[in-house]
Amino acid sequence: MPAPSEPDTRARFAAQALRTFTAGVFERLGLPPADAAEGAEVLIDADLAGIESHGIAHLPWHPGYAPGFRRGLVNPTPEVKVLRESPVAATWDADGGLGILIARRAMEAAIAKARATGIGMVAVRNGRHFGAAGYYARMAAERDMVGMAMCNVPPLAVAAGSLDRAYGTNPIAMAAPVEGDHPFLLDIATTAVAGGKLEIAQRQGKGIPAGWAVNEDGANTGDPEVLRKGGALLPLGSYLETSAHKGYGLGLMVDILTGILPGMGSALFAPRHEQGWWFAAWRIDAFRDLAGFKADMKRMADHLRSLRPAAGVERVQVPGDPEARAREERTRLGIPLDPETIEQLKALGGELGVPFPYP
Fold first, then answer.
1. Residue 217, exposed/middle/buried by CB under 10 A (0-12, 13-18, 19+)?
2. I need a surface site. Which of 13, 224, 232, 253 has the fewest CB within 10 A?
3. How far apart are CA 149 and CA 172, in angstroms?
4. Domain residues for 264?
5. 3-state DSSP call for residue 180?
């Protein structure tokens, strides 16, 4: 995404037009119409929130979407299996279904358990790419609950102090409601940067900063195509001297909850197209008064935004602020897309007989 100081001159598209196009593509790839519409809603929501690394740009080339359906890696009509279940927890097998669709339903199940018992958790194996983790955590916050979502990813990052890949971007998301405001929403990779940031740099013809990735010899690189050339992402913290062990440890924690817990095993040993997920929701009123919690959240958020910004920083933000601003602006003005993405989507639509919308 362009820096705030740069005018964004990319063509913009109405969110509903992109949803309609995406749903049409999913239908042509075998999804029932209702499932296609639901999956499109999740995918385009990432673009509305400004998370371009996880939105419609993935549709034409990522194995979790169109190519995955064509290669038989994504099942358009899965039979999701409940492997274990209790009032507060469950383990599912996603049967290779569209990740953004099955993940949303798994989070709905966790929320239903929380509504009934106070807390709910669902772990899922045999999943596919589930998009932006924050979407699922926010689902709980919008129902006045606290929510969390995680997934494991095939190894893309070195272990702290190693030259070898050991874990994926393995994101962690957490959301909570705030009185009279958008939810607190933390959605972070446990690597120095999400892999999608390198994809954006490639599309825009830009290099990447030091501290994001290393080549196969462990040297810093500015090449956004380094992952295709045998290199790797760095853990959150980047280097041993700057606490890379923290990102590495968090990434392994995610792998345990999303892979080993539901019986898939570590992503180190799973097929590259497979993901494991873990979702949790809990009712705030199981712990304290809901109104008081939300008021305390508002007081905290307002105080943090009032802190003095450092030089070159416009204002201090609370997690969720960038997404909320992007959502307001993109709902009003449209979602900007890179020229390369537009051409790929037009080509995909042409192949399937689904016309791509005009800006």
1. exposed
2. 253
3. 6
4. 80-192+234-305
5. coil
Question: What tokens does 22 get?
Answer: 């995406």
User: Looking at residue 64, which CATH number applies to its domain?
Assistant: 1.10.1530.10
Q: Do 55 and 87 share a structural domain?
A: no
Three state DSSP letters for 273-300 = CCEEEEEEEEEHHHCCCHHHHHHHHHHH
Is the dihedral angle over the CA atoms 4, 9, 14, 19 positive or is it negative?
Answer: negative
Helix (H), strand (E) at residue 133: helix 133-141
Which tokens go with 207? 């290099």
- From residue 132, alpha-carbon distances to 48, 113, 176, 225 in Å are 12, 23, 17, 22
In whole angstroms, what is the distance from residue 149 CA to residue 127 CA? 14
Number of separate domains in the chain: 2
pLDDT tens-place string over residues 236-272:
999 999 999 999 999 999 999 999 999 999 999 999 9
Q: Are 249 and 239 in contact (CB under 8 A)?
A: no
pTM given for the model: 0.95
Amino acid at 169: T
Helices (H) and strands (E) in the chain, counts: 10, 13
Per-residue pLDDT of 198-234, as tens digits, reads 988 988 899 999 999 999 999 999 999 999 999 999 9
Given 305, 332, 351, the domain boundary residue is 305
Is residue 359 assigned to a domain?
yes
